User: Fold this.
Amino acid sequence: MWVGVLTVVYLLFQVTGLATSVHAILNTRTAQGAIAWVVSLNAMPLIAVPVYWVFGRSRFEGYVNALKDHDLLLAEKRQEAHDAFAPFVVEGPEHFPEYRAIRRLSLTPFLRGNQVELLVDGKRTYGSLEEGLRRAHSYILFQFYILRSDASGTRFMDLLAQRAGEGVEVYVLYDEIGSHDLSANWLQRYRDAGVRVIPFGTTRGSGNRFQVNFRNHRKIVVVDGRESWIGGLNIGDEYLGADSRLTPWRDTHLHLEGPAALAAQSIFWSDWYWADGTLLRNLVWRPQPAAQAAGTGQDVLVLGSGPADDLETASLFFTTVINAARRRIWIATPYFVPDEATQVSLSLALLRGVEVRIITPRLNDNWFVRHAANVYLSQFHRLGAHIHFYEEGFMHQKVVLVDDNLSLVGTVNFDNRSFRLNFEVTAAVADRQFAQEVERMLSADLSRSTELERFDLRQAPFLERLKARGSVLLAPVL
Assistant:
């Protein structure tokens, strides 16, 4: 009897594997990926079928279509916003001929009239955030991948509850996977205080029901449509150095005031609609230049990217930026497992004589990423890249410096997850003075790092090579 039942179950999986193969052929982004899934789904359906439906897809379904029902309602407002932005639009930042491609990738262009502040590490970032939340008059948009219910999380949520009690509208969005340990009682406490707090909902929609692979990795705070915060820090005690294993925690955030804050606001606005099904109608959409912006201020582009995009926005963006480099590319990232397009761009940059420096932590919170990174670090070291292991704790910042005038600060890691599976946000600042600040910051990080004189994985012990090559097999989901 059991033999018959097991046979029927296996045949069902075999048929499901065949049907799922069709889905993989139609939806997998690369031919290599499609072939790998088709072979796996038919050769070992008992394992591959559930794995595919949980981890196998790179397209987040329903997000883009969610707002289409409101197109007519929003058309007038959209046109008003477009007209209001016109005086701030930068037609082409200096020394950036590839801007045309970036402009087509991004929903918003570079905007002038901004004032940008570099925030180094948790204490300064949290202090700036608190000051900004206290300045709010009308509303606060508060979004993080990780929101802890520890002292730091409670500190911010208590402040948000206080502001809500003072008549400020407060909207909090968190990723339910990154913030999986939040208790219902803790959340309800703030809802009762007037804070609208909800999860993003990565498993909403019939096509996403079984997915745990998609994450909303964004960190966005907007106050009154005038100022915004974007960067690598989440809300939790570990970002202030409370994690005994990863202390001290090294991270970078950015505070911007001016028209670009509305670009960050539009990303939150879309995420909120997906999560809650309601439109935030009380937001300010008329851009105002920063009060302290000298001259035309700083040119800033805020780019949202994610698995709901028609194109692989993050991968194309970073590839374009790397191709634009003429003198140097400095990359600070905790997770360096680049996709094929980024590998090609960095290789070409090295071949044309661009100085490439990659700063990544020696201590890492992900064993597989740490070993997989060695494959790529070795590859680029052989081509002439400077590889630096950050030694003082865990470095979590996501910062790129290109030549002398372009800086990127955001949430995107150099890995497939950030490029294709996560919802991310990046602030690009085209400003020479700000680039000098970023250079000084990264130079300080380099002084706390060890540059590798020789790094060739081919000469490493067998076990190290095995761990690195084995980990690379998981690169699509790392």
Summary: The CA atoms of residues 108 and 263 lie 7 Å apart. The mean pLDDT is 86. The longest helix spans residues 2-27. The first strand starts at residue 111 and ends at 120.
